[in-house]
Specification:
By secondary structure, the chain is of the alpha+beta class. The chain folds into two domains: 58 residues, no CATH class; 190 residues, 3-Layer(aba) Sandwich (Glutaredoxin). It contains ten helices and 13 strands. The strands form five sheets. Strands 6-5-4-10-11 form a five-stranded mixed β-sheet, with helices on both faces. It has a two-stranded antiparallel sheet with strand order 1-7. A two-stranded antiparallel sheet has the order 2-3. A hairpin with a 5-residue loop joins strand 10 and strand 11. Helix 2 runs antiparallel to helix 10 and helix 5 crosses helix 6. It is elongated. The N terminus is likely disordered.
Length: 280
C-alpha cells in the first residue's frame, strides 16, 4: 500500500508545482457543480417548475389582488409589515394542503405575536378561477387550525386575475405550469420586508418555528439572507408527477465522491512532502 501511495503521489507531484495547483483548482471547481446545477434549475427556462430566487428585489406595488370579500387590494398598501407569502390554488390535490397545514401548525407553535411584533401571512391563489368565497372559507378553516386566537387580519387569502397573478408570481420567482386540469408547482414560502423586498426563501412543506421567527425578524430590519435551504433543495428534487420531493441519490453520491477525491489529493500532497523531507 505504501508503494502504491508513493507511486501515485510521485506521478502527481513529479509535475511542476503550478500544474499541481491547477489540478487542485479543477477539483475545487468540480465541487462547486452543485451550485451551478441549482442555478440551472432556477434559470427560469420555459416549463421549469421551481423557485427562481429574487433576493433583494422589490415586489411591484401596482399588483392588484382580490381579498376574501371581493375587495380590490393594492400590494403597495397591503404589504406594510413583514409578510410570509405563499402561493397555492384552492382545489390542489397535491402539496398545497400539506403546505397550508404546516403553516397553521407552525403558527400555532411559534411565539410570534402580531400585536407585539407586527407580521402577516399572505396566501395567494395562482388559479384565476378561484373565487373570494373560496378564499374566505380557506381562511376560516386555517385560522381555526392554528389552535390559538389570532386577529383575522393576521392571515389573508387572496385571489386575482391572470395578469396580476402572472406579475406577482414572476416577481417572486414562483414558477409553475398547468398539467391538464391541475398544476405542477414547487412548495415553499417567501419572506417580504415592509418595503416589499424579498429577504428570504424557505423550501418544501416542513419548517421550524424558529425559521418563521427569524424570517419575521430579518424582514422587519430588511436584512436579505441567503437560502441555507439550498442544500435541501440540492439533495431533494421535486417530482411533478407525484407532487412530492424525492431524495436525489445521484447528486449526493457525486458530491461525496468529489469531496473524497479532493481530500485524497491533499493527503497525497502532504504525505509526499513529509517523505521527501525524510529523504533529505
Amino acid at each position: 500500500m505504501s508503494d502504491f501511495r508513493e507511486g501515485v503521489a510521485g506521478r502527481l507531484f513529479s509535475l511542476k508545482m503550478p500544474t499541481c495547483v491547477l489540478a487542485l483548482v479543477v477539483v475545487v471547481a468540480l465541487l462547486t457543480c452543485p451550485s451551478l446545477i441549482l442555478a440551472q434549475d432556477n434559470s427560469g427556462e420555459p416549463g421549469s417548475v421551481n423557485f427562481d430566487e429574487h433576493l433583494g428585489e422589490i415586489i411591484p406595488g401596482d399588483i392588484v389582488l382580490t381579498d376574501e370579500y371581493g375587495q380590490q387590494v393594492n400590494m403597495a398598501e397591503f404589504i406594510d409589515k413583514p409578510t410570509i407569502l405563499n402561493f397555492v390554488y384552492f382545489e390542489c390535490p397535491g402539496i398545497c394542503t400539506p403546505l397550508l397545514n404546516e403553516i397553521a401548525d407552525i403558527l400555532g407553535k411559534s411565539n410570534l405575536n402580531p400585536e407585539k411584533q407586527p407580521f402577516q401571512l399572505l396566501t395567494v391563489s395562482f388559479e384565476p378561477n378561484d373565487s373570494p368565497e373560496m378564499a374566505r372559507a380557506k381562511r376560516k378553516n386555517y385560522l381555526e387550525l392554528v389552535g390559538r386566537p389570532l386577529p383575522e387580519e393576521t392571515w389573508r387569502f387572496f385571489t386575482g386575475d391572470a395578469e396580476n397573478i402572472a406579475k406577482f408570481t414572476e416577481a417572486a420567482g414562483f414558477r409553475y405550469k398547468r398539467a391538464g386540469l391541475e398544476y405542477t408547482h414547487p412548495g415553499g414560502i417567501v419572506i417580504l420586508s415592509p418595503e416589499r423586498k424579498i429577504v428570504r426563501y424557505f423550501y418544501g412543506v416542513q419548517f421550524l418555528p424558529f425559521d418563521f421567527q427569524m424570517g419575521v425578524y430579518e424582514a422587519s430590519i430588511g436584512r436579505v439572507m441567503p437560502t441555507t435551504a439550498r442544500l435541501m433543495q440540492f439533495c431533494f428534487s421535486y417530482e411533478p408527477e407525484s407532487r412530492t420531493y424525492a431524495f436525489n441519490l445521484a447528486r449526493v453520491v457525486a458530491v461525496v465522491m468529489l469531496t473524497s477525491l479532493f481530500f485524497f489529493i491533499i493527503f497525497l500532497y502532504f504525505s509526499t512532502r513529509r517523505s521527501r523531507r525524510k529523504e533529505v
